[in-house]
Amino acid sequence: MMIDVLKKSLFAKNDQAAEENRHLLDHHGVVAVNIMGGAGCGKTTLLECLIPQLQQTLSVGVLEGDLATTKDADRVAALHVPVVQLLTEGGCHLTASLVHQGLRRLPLAELDLVLIENVGNPICPANFDLGEHFRMAVLSVAEGDDKPAKYPLLFKVADVVVITKTDLAGASDFDPARAAGAIRALDGHKGIFLTSRQDRSSMRLLLDWLESRAAPFSVSHCGIRHTSVARLE
Ligand code: MG
Ligand code: ZN
């Protein structure tokens, strides 16, 4: 009972901070994407592939969530985009208030798109609204096609799912159709993109998706969801 009460107040506090983040982002006309997935699924590599292309039409900033170390933030900073490291100091997910601190350190007035790399963890980040406009779940071929069924909340709350490391498919029993089937069983209308760092053209459809959502003065802003996430109780 007590734990339920504490959980409710924790989420209520987070949701309020998330709403403030959304107002701050909307005020500056910035679209934010929360990128979630397990450790090693390829989130940082995806940023390395996408950002140089996105920069041709958009001004991009990055919030880099990690338990410890600046390894990923250093990789992203090498792409010459503003990046703020958010260290959770052992915490296994980003919270809206931590993201707020990060947003305050980015030049929001100059940006179109903020990519938020969450802590490598396929479980609890999906419970925490950060004030983002879109959620991206990342799943690598190396993790197995059973993961959408094992971590349903992540794949349910995501607006898009990016399957990475497809070049490894031949060396594993990952079946993209089986993974897509499991994802669509949770939500039939989700976009699913197959990507590989070895084949940069595989990023094109995902780039189109991101660009259409974040283009300055884009009408797509109107369709943005402004509610908090559904949770598995
Ligand atoms: Mg990373
Ligand atoms: Zn956590």
What is this structure's SSE topology?
Elements: H1 2-27, E1 31-36, H2 43-54, E2 60-66, H3 71-77, E3 83-87, H4 96-104, E4 113-117, E5 134-140, H5 147-150, H6 152-157, E6 160-164, H7 176-186, E7 191-194, H8 204-214
Residues 43-44, 72, 117, 120 line the site of magnesium ion.
Concise synopsis of the structure shown:
By secondary structure, the protein is α/β, with parallel strands linked by helices. Helices cover 37% and strands 17% of the residues.
Number of helices: 8
Number of domains: 1
Major β-sheet strand ordering: 3-2-4-1-5-6-7
Order of helices and strands: HEHEHEHEEHHEHEH
Rounded mean pLDDT is: 91
* Helical coverage, percent range: 25-40%
Small-molecule components bound: magnesium ion, zinc ion
Q: How large a portion of the residues is in β-strands, by DSSP E?
A: 15-25%
The SS-based structural class is alpha/beta
Main sheet? 7 strands, parallel
Number of DSSP E strands: 7
pLDDT < 50 runs, ≥5 residues: 218-233
C-alpha termini separation: 13 Å
Shape-level CATH architecture? 3-Layer(aba) Sandwich
Label the overall shape. Answer: globular
Q: Kindly report the CATH topology.
A: Rossmann fold
State the fourth-level CATH superfamily: P-loop containing nucleotide triphosphate hydrolases
